[in-house]
Amino acid sequence: MVIHHDERASRLDERALAALGGVERVRPASAVEWGAGSQLDLHLRCFAWLLERVAFDWLVMLSGQDYPARPVAEVERDLAAAPYDAFVVGEPVPPPGWGRGPLDERSARYYYRYRPIPRPRPRLRRALAAARPLVTARDMPWGTAAGLRWRTPFTPSMPCRRGPDWLTLARPAVAALDAAARTRPELVRHYRRTIIPTESFAQTVLHGTPGLRLSADTRRYSAWAPGAARPAILRLADLDAIVSSGADFARKFDMTVDAAVLDALDARACT
User: Fold this and answer.
1) What's this model's pTM, rounded to 2 decimal places?
2) What are phi and psi of 113, to 5 degrees?
3) What DSSP designation does 118 have?
């Protein structure tokens, strides 16, 4: 297990990690804002770190709200036999139109370049809305960003794509992402100025890299309420759906909401 942890919000128990064994930390940890360029930098930094220091066959990206949905030994066995280099969704993201109506959420993320601005007052918000499609604005957990429609580095052979950033990657796929970060600086520069770049950079690069064998199966389970912006917190009542999904991992869990579901998953893994 390799961990990158931004300690501005909380500190990890170093003694507990050492007692577990097999845990390494990427140091020094950099500050990360969800949905900003710093999150993409975290991914790229970890890819390079792993390629240099760890003899891995597969990389599975997890957060602190993920948990194994079946025994890890089964996951390892199935990945070892998988005929793919990556499990990654790659839905095409067409450029936004030139009308003044609402922008498509995905194209607004990746065809504009954003800068943080002070939280705008109503008059400025109306002005930004009137300037569409040349300008747009987005409220993020860390503040408001204004985006300007910009020339992109996307090409016919590597068009913009998107998908969940919970990736399962064989070493050749991780090497392809690391190579793109080193040889395509214009692509990295563009994505650093977009919104939620981790849901498009890897998807665009991997689907645009010849020779990689890709599956759109995310190998993850999550539950979404209609119209929700994020997955629901999973509870004990979701156990049968989690297990029957056949997914490797499920998300999101919160021990302060329902810890019993994690105990139940542990019990199944040990039988």
Assistant:
1) 0.92
2) -115, 135
3) P
